[in-house]
Write a structure and sequence with these properties.
The complex is a heterodimer of chains A (426) and B (192).
Chain A (H helix, E strand, L loop, with lengths): L5 H11 L30 H4 L27 E8 L4 E6 L5 E5 L5 E7 L2 E8 L7 E5 L2 E5 L4 E4 L13 E4 L13 E3 L4 E6 L14 E6 L6 E5 L4 E6 L6 E5 L11 E7 L12 E2 L3 E2 L17 E5 L3 E6 L13 E5 L12 E5 L24 E5 L3 E2 L2 E2 L3 E6 L5 E5 L4 E7 L6
Antiparallel strand pairs in A: 1-28, 2-3, 3-4, 4-5, 6-7, 7-8, 8-9, 10-11, 11-12, 12-13, 14-15, 15-16, 16-19, 17-18, 20-21, 21-22, 22-23, 24-25, 26-27, 27-28
Chain B lengths: L1 H17 L7 H12 L18 H13 L5 H7 L4 H12 L13 H13 L2 H5 L17 H13 L8 H6 L4 H12 L3
Chain lengths: 426, 192
Amino acid sequence: MTRMTSLRTLLLTSACLGLLTAAPAFAQQPAQPLPPGSPLIGQPDTEAAKKLAPVPGPPLPTAADKLPLDKLKVPKGFKLEVYASGMPNARSLRLGDKGTVFVSSRLQDKVWAIVDQGGKREVKVIASGLYRPNGIAFHKGTLYIAELSQISKIDDIEDHLDNPPKPTVFYTDLPKDEAHGWKYLTVGPDEKLYFQVGAPCNICMPDDKHAQIRRINLDGSGAEIVARGIRQVVGMDFQPVTKILYFSENSRDWLSEDFPNDKLNRVMHPGQDNFGYPYCHQGNIPDPEFGWGHSCDEFVHPIALMGPHAAVLGFRFYTGTMFPAEYRGNIILARHGSWNRSKKFGGDVVLVKLGKDGLPLDKWDTPAGPGPGRKDIEPIVTGFLQNNNYVGRPVDVLQMNDGALLISDDYNGAVYRLSYGAAAKH
Amino acid sequence: MRSARLAAMLAATWLTALAPAGAETLEEKIAPCLACHGENGQSETVNTPSLGAQTAAYALIQIYMFREKLRTFDVMNEMAKPLTDDDLRAISDRIATLPAPKPAAGPVDAARLERGRALLEKDRCVFCHRPDLAGAENVPRIAAQREDYLVKTLREYKSSARHGYDGTMAEVLEPITDQEIRDLAYTIARHK
């Protein structure tokens, strides 16, 4: 009661005492036929297909014994198990030097630590009261946290898991837009923090503060633009040998059911590369509004099309030895799954096979689906999508020191562990 | 400001008397909600939404956000504070069973109604909120919602004064003008 404002109190009190009333009323309107050009024309005529809404998932995490493990399928020799649960909207995953797994959230206000002591795992809240703290990175003992419009850090976090200090904010030169305002955060081989400022809309002409990847020094100084023309980055990693930055990008909504595809990109010319937003989508479709007067060839093509509205999110180059040899050096990537499509697409974790040139084996504009799809994209974990409904949604992947892979699921608020071979057997 | 202080005292008394803490049955727990939001699903309280036939999933998200202070409105934050996860689920399910609110009455400005209808299509409101505006799962029913609450909510989403559970509504409202917000609210409040 102490924080109640008197105005609100006055309104509510008066209202609840019946001082302000409005008579209930009836106004029957006949159902209208769809107007010409309505986006609903041509919609499949089934209940399930008509639902085209973003799917944030339930706010309460799924209990460990109710997680959809029995529905999730993995290739022969692999094993998927629950690593930890009870972290609503679990998103980005990071590994500390001492084995702590850090988990962020996008829709909740918390960052968690999963501490593994001899197979018994404990989940601790290490920061709360944050706003859209999707981006986390760990570097030399420090945990960095990117909220919607500020970046903060906690030094020596693994020594303070039970009583962590509040994060210290050190970078605030960021727009406050809600749309694509949340961040993905990582530390590059140059020991700089990399993050994106997405477009503040589905499709619009962004100003020079938006639609870009930025990097800053670890103290917040020296901000530079790394790449432009990017709608929203949702995953980044550096190729372990060449140190080239790869990133996943979600393309615009509402263009059509099957286009555009989400993209996998790489930055060959930091500071110069422009990836085409809002003029060109998926490297070869000019925007019907902003594309006039431009050619898609003005912009850097994606290295792979990843599926229509598929919501490609977190990925890592796999460097471990636990998984079969064909995984090593290739990309393991989570496709969160579409919402802006009648027949949902994605909802899986896939392997993207690369050649010696660091490019996927198929040509960049080979479609990832629907249809026959690509031969260099192979499913690893499937089954998050059941009968056009999600039972879970993969977000980020994290390679552990033993080569096993953790996978976060923001729909259920859980983290799974994928292992192979002897490690997968009990 | 004596009247405001008096009002605060009254509200304090009312909240203490009706607070869900310690309440036994679901009906006892939900009674204070309905005191403002309307016994029959129809709010007669200014700027306060009708809850009738609201989707259980959306209601759950909102009460959860009030409890966790992800959505801030002091009265609601206080009301939701003592609720357990099971309370949240039970109250949300109960809200979904309340009768749907009735559309706003009175003479109708047909041209304005049509403007709002066109916007519902153009801005793709009907995709997520469905052609009958009854919502589905996490997307709320908006049909026949109070006009004042609709205007307030749309403005708050546009300015980010109200944080949605996700950023969808802020994104949707980015290109929408205040006049369009008022026309949308006019039409939605009168939806059959």
